[in-house]
Fold this sequence. Notes:
Layout: H1 6-15, E1 20-24, E2 29-40, E3 58-62, E4 81-93, H2 94-100, E5 109-113, H3 117-131, E6 139-149, H4 154-168, E7 174-180, E8 183-189, E9 192-197, E10 200-203, E11 206-211, H5 219-226, H6 229-249, E12 255-263, E13 267-277, H7 282-288, E14 297-298, H8 300-310, E15 321-327, E16 336-341, E17 346-350, E18 353-362, H9 368-385, H10 416-424, E19 449-454, H11 459-469, E20 473-478, H12 484-489, E21 492-495, H13 508-522, E22 527-530, H14 532-540, E23 544-561, E24 564-577, E25 587-590, E26 597-602, E27 605-608, H15 620-631
Parallel strand pairs: 19-20, 19-21, 21-22, 22-27
Antiparallel strand pairs: 1-2, 1-7, 2-4, 3-4, 3-15, 5-6, 6-14, 6-18, 7-8, 8-17, 9-10, 9-16, 10-13, 11-13, 12-13, 15-16, 17-18, 23-24, 25-26, 26-27
Amino acid sequence: MTGPDPSSLIHDLLASDAPFALIARDDATVEVLTGTVVDVELLADIPLVGADGAPREVLALVPFRQVRERGFVCHDDGAPLRCLVIEQRMPLPRAEVMASLPSAPVALQDAGFDIDDEAYADIVRRVIADEIGRGEGANFVIRRDFVAGVDADPRVAALTWFRALLEHEKGAYWTFAVVTPGHVAVGASPEAHVSARDGIVTMNPISGTFRHPQGGATAETLAEFLRSTKETEELFMVVDEELKMMSAVCSDGGRITGPHLKEMSRLTHTEYMLRGRSTLDPRDILRETMFAPTVTGSPMQNACTVIARHETTPRGYYSGVAALFTPNGATEGPTHDLDAPILIRTAYLVDGRLRVPVGATLVRHSDPYGEVGETHGKAAGVLGAIGAIPRDVPALPADADPDAPVAERRPLAEDPAIADLLASRNERLAPFWMNPQDPDGTGPFAGRTALVVDAEDRFTTMLAHQLRHLGLDARIVHWSEATDADVDAADLVVAGPGPGDPRDDASPRIAAMRGVVARRRDAKAPLLAVCLSHQILADQVGLDLAPLAQPHQGLQKSVDVFGEPASIGFYNTFTARLPETRPEGVEIAADADTGDVYALRGERFSSVQGHLESILSRDGMRTLERLIAAAL
């Protein structure tokens, strides 16, 4: 590998005030990027083409506030969508770059969390009770920030921390330092949010966080973590949420592979890979996938609302992405490939203040103090690597050679017991999403049209993908844009799921979905109602609605659906209950003990409480076909 002398280059970067970025995406190379900075307002404005019409390479820091482009709410801090238009890329040997970087520790002053442990635990309790407990969603990520003062020169600090992360953090997808006027970002992100190369889109949902005990992780301590119901369901929920995004941007919906382990210095995560094909512009792919549920929650739109309620300060770049757009030489289709890791495990330095934002994923099983501990572990992953706190010494397996270099020690994922535990997770999942999928226009309902009315849960994108596999020509329309003519024209209307209380008379969204369900029933036109809309239908046929004692968010159950057992995933806080006197003309599938209603069918309508499109619905496609056939 040829190029400039790394020592001279680092000296020049420290001596100048020009913007630059250092990125390590493999074990051998550090890419040094230099160019000019341009701040833009919208993703569509990212300048991928120069004045001469030639494609340009651009590294964009995308702040959380860009969710406004999707109509979602946020605390808007005005953080710029900052683009480094790359004029020179220099790949250099990693070892030589490390040897040239500064290594003296950077002192921190007045270091600590901006929200103390008890206050954060109280936030966790409120989110579980007031948000998950009232049907606002399945999981939410609420952050807090580790903050400190820094007297060092920002460029020196950035390069020092970058060197430390290269040396001490393992398993990162990107290790990077981005230095632009007035702003420094240095991190080791474990998670590739989305990439697009040669028409293949990949997403990498990572969830479940195992904090290594003192002395490091062992197969025994990791196995206990992998058996945790809470951690397993947390990963399944974020896979569901990212499959919603994949189904929106990929013609074949997305296929899942895994699970795998992501082993880092202080933490180990579980992850899946999702892949599909797309012809969209990479900026459009990025817009449709803003942002990862692992750092926001689900459903995504309502997660942003919940974040705005419980986080009192803006997120800045936390949970956004660093997006590298690289020309691919194509003359047709997208002209750029995309590589976009999530901006987590990242330290920001602005005006002499260090900020390391971290968040925990809150679910119905969450223990407030366990989530407090998770934020400590995530912050420690960055702070330990850069030397701000003591670094752990990994524990060794019983059969390990203590004199072997760390790089030669066997990864925990190769332990047979760990491999078996990981593989066993897939026994619970829907084969549909694990097999190749590309609708071919055939199926039992070929030639018919379906209108899917979205009630602000993009499970509808997965539903539409399944409907196309069954032969239906499916189109999605937002509840606020569904006209009477739209509702009347479709052969089948699928009234979709969404957050909230189905009894909420003040909600325009709930009112609109009631109107859709009533209009199809009055016309005796085929209708399938899902989750929230199932509850609305149940109310209209005379069943009572009530909150569950314990929300069913990301819960897999085997239930009887009109004489046939089905393993289905549930995401509901409210339920319809079996009445003493059954309404005439309505068949009810319900739990014999609790009276919880799982499905309804009658003249030209069917409904289901569960999510047949979820990866948790092993019998989802079979049950969906049965319910549609009944409605038609």
